[in-house]
Design a protein that fits this description.
The chain is mainly alpha-helical and 305 residues long. The protein folds into two domains: 208 residues, Cation efflux protein transmembrane domain (Alpha-lytic protease prodomain-like); 81 residues, Alpha-Beta Plaits. 70% of the residues lie in helices and 10% in strands. It is built from eight helices and three strands. A three-stranded mixed beta sheet has the order 1-2-3, covered by helices on one side. Strand 2, helix 8 and strand 3 form a beta-alpha-beta unit. Helix 1 runs antiparallel to helix 4. The protein starts with a helix and ends in a 12-residue tail after the last strand. 40% of the residues are buried.
Length: 305
């Protein structure tokens, strides 16, 4: 990836995150007003989740800048693994917020806290849900297009916010229709469960990235490309390793060549194979090969096909 392209990607991601942050702050204020007006447990929980969301987005915005910081003396592989840390932090924050929502729902149910000004609460919460729906879908689309785990995780968090708002709206509608405030607390409990599920999904994805879990689809594509390149040149390969550090795919493999090839020619062939593999890595990739003569071929891992 060229330096100019990297700068554009960084600027684009920072722009998207800035929008997410300021829209999040605005909607948090809207929900806090709705919670104050209505006294609804569901809306109160929705507002609490939004407070957590803003904190998480602020950390994610910082992570976007850090992820593009180049390698240095203390971080030889760069800083983009912070993407997974950011995703895990956001998932953890969501999960904690869900527990608070459940606690508050139970407390208000037991204490019999009344719900007021239902119509105003419905309007404000419905507006927040609609804005978050548009924002969340936009963030996920941008995350997929830019291959950004941070943007995708943030989009999923925003969509989780939509669920909390939708649950609050349903609860208020039932309260308005029946006059029974029990529905408000039940809606808050459902909201808490949905939010918790979203948070766990993000945490699991984050742990997978931090533990270098292999992406099966990319692993298949890399193997197919290697087999094609090796077959054309009468070579073989083994000890393939593939990991994703958040923005960059790292690929390593051993390339087995004829004993009679000179170092120069073997290097040229390896460079051609590396370049072919690098082309399929999105959005950026680093490919490293180790050359072995046929007579010294050594497979280091029993799991390697």
């Amino acid at each position: 990836m060229s330096e100019l392209h990297e700068k554009k990607q960084k600027a684009d991601q920072s722009y998207v995150m800035a929008w997410s942050l300021w829209v999040g702050v605005f909607l948090m204020l809207v929900k806090l007003v709705a919670a104050y007006l209505t006294g609804s447990a569901a809306i109160y929980g929705d507002a609490a989740e939004s407070v957590v969301h803003v904190v998480a987005v602020a950390f994610a915005a910082y992570s976007v800048r850090l992820a593009w910081k180049p390698a240095d003396d203390t971080h030889h592989y760069g800083h983009d693994k912070v993407s997974f840390l950011s995703s895990g932090f956001e998932g953890g924050m969501i999960s904690v917020a869900s527990m608070f929502v459940v606690f508050e729902a139970v407390r208000r149910w037991i204490e019999g806290v009344p719900v007021h000004r239902v119509s105003e609460g419905l309007i404000l919460t419905g507006f927040a849900a609609l804005v978050n729906l548009v924002l969340g879908l936009w963030l996920i689309r941008k995350g997929k297009k830019m291959k950004s785990q941070i943007l995708r995780a943030n989009g999923l968090h925003v969509l989780a916010d939509v669920w909390t708002s939708a649950g609050a709206v349903v609860g208020l509608l039932l309260v308005q229709a029946t006059g029974d405030r029990m529905w408000d607390s039940l809606a808050a409990l459902v909201v808490g469960g949905l939010v918790f599920k979203s948070g766990i999904v993000l945490v699991k994805e984050s742990l997978g990235g931090l533990m270098d879990t292999v992406d099966p689809e990319m692993d298949k594509r890399v193997r197919e490309e290697l087999e094609r390149e090796c077959q054309e040149r009468g070579l073989t390969y083994h000890n393939l390793r593939l990991r994703h550090s958040g923005r960059i795919y790292w690929v390593e493999f051993h390339l087995v060549v004829d004993d009679g090839l000179s170092v120069k020619i073997a290097h040229e062939i390896a460079s051609e194979v590396e370049a072919a593999v690098a082309k399929i890595l999105e959005p950026d990739g680093r490919v490293i090969s180790h050359i072995e003569p046929f007579s010294e071929e050594d497979r280091e891992r029993s799991w390697e096909r």
